[in-house]
Amino acid sequence: MTPGRESAGIMGDRVVFWEHLFRSAAVICGLLTLAIFCFLCVLGLPLLQDGHLLSLLSSPWAPARGLYGIFPMLLASILLALLSLALGFPVSLGCSLLITALAPRRLRMLLIGMIRLMAGIPTVVYSFAALFLLVPLMRTLIGRGSGLSLLTAAPVLALLIVPTMVIFFVAGFEKVNRAHLLALDALGGSRVQKIIHILLPGARPVLINGTLLGFGRAMGDTMVSLMLAGNSTAVPSSLADSARTLPAHIALVMASDFDSLEFTSIFACGLLLYLVTGLLMLLMRLPGRSPDNES
Amino acid sequence: MKRSQTGVLLGLLCMTIGFLYPGMPLQAADDLAPFTGLKGSLRIAGGTAHIPVMKEAARRIMSFNPDIRINIAGGGSGLGIRQAGEGLIDIGNAGRRPTDTEIAKYNLKLFQWAIDGVGVIVHSDNPVRTLTSAQLQGIFAGRISNWKEVGGVDREIDIYTRDESSGTRKVFWKKALARGTISDRANVVVSNGAMKTTVAGDPFGIGYISIGYMDATVAPVSLDGVVPDLANVRNGSYRVARGLYSLTRGEPAGLARAFVDFLFSPTGQQIVQDKGLIPVR
Amino acid sequence: MTGQRKITEITVTWFCWLSGLLLLAALVILVGYLIRRGGPVLGLSLLFGDTPPLDALLLRKHVFDGLYPALAGTLLLVIGAMVLAIPLGIASGIYMAEYAGGRTKAVFSLLFDILAGIPSIVVGLAGLSITIFLHRIFGERIMPCLLISCLALAYLVLPYLIRTTQVALESIDPVIRKTAPALGASRLQNIGHVLLPHSLPAIIGGIILATGRCAEDTAVIMLTGAVASAGIPRSLLDQYEALPFYIYYISAQYTSPDELATGFGAALLLLLLCSALLVLALVLQRRLTIFLLYR
Asked: How high does pLDDT run on average in chain B?
């Protein structure tokens, strides 16, 4: 439907009023998105000015020595997100293919229901259970350390992002051209061939976008890394090390002095996370990929 | 003789009547009396070592007078000092003495109602129960990294430390570690309670908590031959001791005043004792 | 050739089924563990501790050692946040679907996607920033409280509502869309009398899911007013307890096995709550569709 003003009439003014109302609502929401960015910049200013930006992103965290670098947290966030994607992507792909192409009808309904249920489980519940189930296990498996590490947090984070990615992939697979699928059936192709030759190539943009979405979710989650990754301030030298992610840092440092540079560092973290989100959203919009098939 | 005898008898009589009186002992009723007719809410936050006492006091007061609401949060001594100073909360708790700058800047009034110590803890299965200062400093700095170097099993030491706002950490760093470094590879936990549960769950962990928090789930480690318990804190042989303070901005009034007075009352100090701390009165 | 294809077939099939199995196993282990440790504690004493339930419900006595304040806090949060978010979200969604076009739509779409992708901790941080600003401007008595948490949570779920409304409206059959205008109705009348009722099931489904999102979030409320013990909030400017925060808090700071058990009880409770909302959304959607389309 093309936008435009309705012709005025007895109803004219009221119609225009409502149109303005709807538009204002959208504008307010849009402004809110930008407002956060402004808040973060303003409050993070002390650390951002005077060329501190580079040192912020590359130095370690040692307030006693006057170093407020968030590099260890940035590295930990990225490592954790990549690791959980490495675990989560194959499982998501497998499950979504299972649902779309391989499973019989009744099982498909069950699987979709299960996925939806999992998408609704709060992250704090995942983390809580993992704290008592997984941490002692990891301690024995890794052989050293307290069991709180990136390696412990990754599977739980993967479990968190898999349902979202599966729903996204399944929706994407359903949009693949039906005619092609029918053609394959007519030629006597098997289900696996359907997967390999039609679904996967046809839904490639969806797969990429879904992965980006999962990555964003993994980087942004707080509770899993706060409760399971150990929160040490050192740069993680291995995946079995205790580490602190950007969101966990924010949660831990927010209790400190408002006026201190420590506290300001959490706004720098927030800004970084915001920018990463923005970047991911832009990447998802690169030519050839439309963002419309989201759940 | 006769007068004192009658006095004792009279006293016993009063106490008996007091105990028979439905509700509560005479003493407790007295101490809670200032809360009659008061209304409103009280915000308390800060040091986590104070929380057990705060919670019990709040429970008694709120049961006595349901119109009163007392909110208790943790966050560490730094938060307690700062938020009390900025008027965000009514009473701040700190496990370290605020610096003179802080007192001057916020016009803080201090009330020390207990004495506590900070002791090193390990898992209850850990055979290592005694360390010298040098060993302790080496462990927390990361120089000593394996339990076998101090008489334990062959396994890496998992260090646990508190966040930077913590008064417990400050006292530990200053007095037990003699201001030595704490390795940045240490796992960070956010409260005394968290420290206790984490070390209780990690057979190879080491950490430090308020002595009031110690119980059977963790094992205390003697420092230079002195066991961290209340008796040693009281007689001064265990040096890593500190006062537990509550602070207000300016003189407290109303509900806050009543609460602070309650902490110093016999009931309040009994609660302090019950929670494993040393009362000041 | 057939040999190689056979191997590919088998590998792919196995991979997909294993993924599904893995996911199912993870879910069963998680929920099973929670039920095993939290199930025994479920009951009135979990909610009310030592206080008689009637006194607690009528606010005559405080509840210690019980989840009732946390449950009440979560409830109030959810209501507050949804009251703020629903009008704004639906209005914006209507704007996006019906009035916006071309470049405007693309810009708003990007902004709303960023809004959707912002990590919850950053939203909490924004809430904290607002508190600081207000505290500096209006002085003393402004501090993290229920109101600010509701605002922040509304911010969090806004994109869900916008997107649900937009997608729901856009998926309406073009035939239905054009009927009323063909008979002379204005766009506003079309929206009010035809489009909205048609998309109401989907919108309500979206609302309920957003409600679930509000109930489960921890990161936002951690920074904006949730505390470990506060009783029932008596005004919007009070601090409060909440179920997810209780779980997080107890996970590290339980002082006895009994308290830990209440943590499991709380986790189970939250899980049941979110699952119930999910099921409600599905059921309601189906029922409403039937009711609205075939009355």
From this structure: 85
- Which residues, in sequence order, are bridge partners of residue B116? B242
Q: Which three-class secondary structure string do you get for chain B?
A: CHHHHHHHHHHHHHHHHHHHCCCCCHHHHHHHHHHCCCCEEEEEEECCCCHHHHHHHHHHHHHHCCCEEEEEEEECHHHHHHHHHCCCCCEEEECCCCCHHHHHHHCEEEEEEEEEEEEEEEECCCCCCEECHHHHHHHHHCCCCEHHHHCCCCCECEEEEECCCCHHHHHHHHHHCCCCCCCCCCEEECCHHHHHHHHHHCCCEEEEEEHHHCCCCEEEEEECCECCCHHHHHCCCCCCEEEEEEEEECCCCHHHHHHHHHHHCHHHHHHHHHCCCEECC
Q: What is the mean pLDDT of residues A67-85?
A: 90
Provide the CB-side half-sphere exposure for A47 (13 A, CA).
Answer: 30
A with B: how many residue pairs have Cβ under 8 Å apart? 59
CB contact under 8 A, B185 and A232: yes
Task: Compute the distance between CA of residue B274 and CA of residue B267 in angstroms, rounded to an integer.
Answer: 10
Do strands B40-46 and B91-94 pair parallel, antiparallel, or not at all (unpaired)?
Answer: parallel
A223 φ, ψ to 5°?
Answer: -65, -40
Distance CA B68, CA B35 (A): 9
C62 touches B: beta carbon within 8 Å:
yes
Q: How many residues does chain B have?
A: 281
The token pair at C213 is: 């999102």
Q: What is the pLDDT of residue C28?
A: 93
Phi-psi region of B138 (alpha: psi -120 to 50; beta: other; left: phi over 0): alpha
Q: In this predicted model, what pLDDT tens digit does every residue of B147-197 receive, in sequence order? A: 999 988 888 899 999 987 788 999 999 999 999 889 888 998 888 888 998
Q: Does residue B28 register a pLDDT over 70? A: no
**Six-digit token pair at B182?**
């704490």
Residues in A closer than 8 angstroms to B202, CB to CB, are 139, 146-147
Residue recorded with tokens 């390999």: A196
CA distance A140 to C201: 50
Identify how many contiguous H helices and E strands chain C contains and give both numbers.
Answer: 13, 0
* Low pLDDT (below 50) residues in chain C: none
CB B204 within 8 A of CB B157: yes
Average the pLDDT over B265-273 and give the result. Answer: 91
Q: Name the residue with tokens 């990615």.
A: A165
Q: How many CB atoms lie within 10 A of CB C286?
A: 12
**Residue B182 to chain A, least CA–CA distance (Å):** 11
Contacts with B, A 228-267, CB within 8 Å: 230-234, 241-242, 244, 252-253, 255-258, 262
Give strand pairing partners of B188.
B161
A 10 A CB-CB count for A179 gives: 8
- Look up residue A241 and give its amino acid: D
Give me the amino acid identity at A243.
Answer: A
- pLDDT tops 80 at residue A206: yes
DSSP at A61: E
For residue A181, give the amino acid letter.
L
Q: Phi and psi at residue B129, in whole multiples of 5°?
A: -120, 0
The SS3 of residue C240 is strand
Which H or E run includes C123?
A: helix C120-138
Q: Which helix (H) or strand (E) segment is A67 a member of?
A: strand A67-68
Interface ipTM: 0.87
pTM, full prediction: 0.86
